[in-house]
Amino acid sequence: MALATALTVLPALLSQAVGKSVGDESAVPDPISALFTRLPENLDGWQPEGMDGAIAIQMLPAVGREDLASRFGRPRGRPCPTLPGDPIPSLADAAREAQVVIVSEAHDQPLHRQVIGELGLALADEFDWFAAETFVHEAVADRKAGRIPMALGSYSDEPMFGRELRALDAAGYHFVAYEILPHQSAPEDANTAEQVIAREEAQAENLIAGVLDEHPDARILVHVGYSHALEAPVNNFEREIEWFAARLKRKTGIDPLTVSQTHCSLPDATAANALDGLRLADGTAAVESVGAIDHFLAPPPLRFENGRPAWRRTIGDVEIPVPDIFRSEHDRVIIEAHAPEDPDDEVPVDRLLLYPGESLPLLLPQGQWRLTAWTGDGAVAAPVTINAGD
Fold it and tell me: How much is the pTM?
């Protein structure tokens, strides 16, 4: 299956991993089991191919392995000229007159989630709704205040996505789901273009029904993947297609402020880490339709320290060695870090996959954290409580 097709249907497939085993407390939780199943057992000679490869690349950052996603993943956006200005404040200023802001991400880039979270906080005094492609309708409706459960979205169980959602929840945003529902899907024998069209139409209709019908003046920040941010028709899958932003614009008359993090990149580092090196860019040549995107962000290549992204240290994360009791010379191990009071089905603040013999660190905010660890067969040992920082 082509990568574009894989990315079109990926959220629906990933939602099958949401849930948790019941009964034996030593049993592997369903989301952890899904990670073990969909990630390569070993890296010797592994090449990501087809749907399984696309899923694996997207899931590697969910287990803290952006280093492997960068090593095996597809090329980033095309090089674009940079523009002056501090990215987050500049975008926040541009959004002051907008009713809807739509920002795209690459699903294998936790950095993009950090950027959207920071922009959301900068807009929190004026924007009150947050819509995310990943959200599961029933989970959003059932969510308890202050909680970011694993089941909330089809791929928001990645730790930096969880941190983004916690920050926006604490800032007062109302969450809304708008993803396609089963009854809105194209027929099973539909081609890729027909599947895309059905999904984009459903997303636009669902956001209108979920917010704008009852709150016509609501100001909404929308977190999308890839092409969903295009607000003008483009040629895809051998035909002209209106993606989500274009349909929302046509149906409501609202001209969204659109921001792409996926079309442009920088070939060289512009700072010690990718977050500080992020730049506004001129992406005119990166999109075929004039006006399809209002603003472009271009990240430099990721730089890693001890196998983990250098930019994470700039947001205050502290490097913590994985306890020896959780390491293995023979099995893959997934370690999670939660606040002591949080249940295991809460999105962790960090998650790390170690292949046999590896020794990468956890990256944690200052504070006290409860660590759990699993192999594919069950819990490695009893939870361990650690302190990060002072």
Answer: 0.93
Residue-wise pLDDT tens digits, 28-74: 999 999 999 999 999 999 999 899 999 999 999 999 999 999 999 87
d(CA 252, CA 208): 8
93 lies in some domain: yes
For residue 96, with 0-12 CB atoms within 10 Å meaning exposed, 13-18 middle and 19 or more buried, which class applies? exposed
User: Domain containing 370: what range?
Assistant: 317-390
Cα torsion 74, 375, 387, 165: sign: positive
228: domain CATH number?
Answer: 3.40.50
Q: Beta strand pairing status for 333-338 and 350-354?
A: antiparallel
For 364, the enclosing helix (H) or strand (E) is strand 362-364
Give burial (CB, 10 Å; 0-12/13-18/19+) of 67.
middle
Q: For residue 58, is it within any domain?
A: no
- Check residue 25 and give its pLDDT: 57
pLDDT digits (tens, 9 = 90+) for 55-65: 999 999 999 99
pLDDT at 27: 85
Residues 219 and 324 in one domain: no
**What is the widest separation between alpha-carbon atoms in the chain?**
59
How many domains is the chain partitioned into structurally?
Answer: 2
Check if the beta carbon of residue 200 is closer than 8 Å to that of residue 247: yes
Structure confidence by residue, pLDDT tens digits, 353-381: 999 999 999 999 999 999 999 999 999 99
pLDDT value at 23 more than 90: no
Q: What are the structure tokens assigned to 155, written together? A: 């791929």
Residue 22 belongs to some domain of the structure: no
| Chain centre distance of CA 140 | 17
Same domain, 157 and 248: yes
Other CB atoms within 10 Å distance of the CB of residue 310? 19
| Rounded Cα distance, 351 and 371, in Å | 9
Instruction: Report yes or no on 109 lying in a domain.
Output: yes
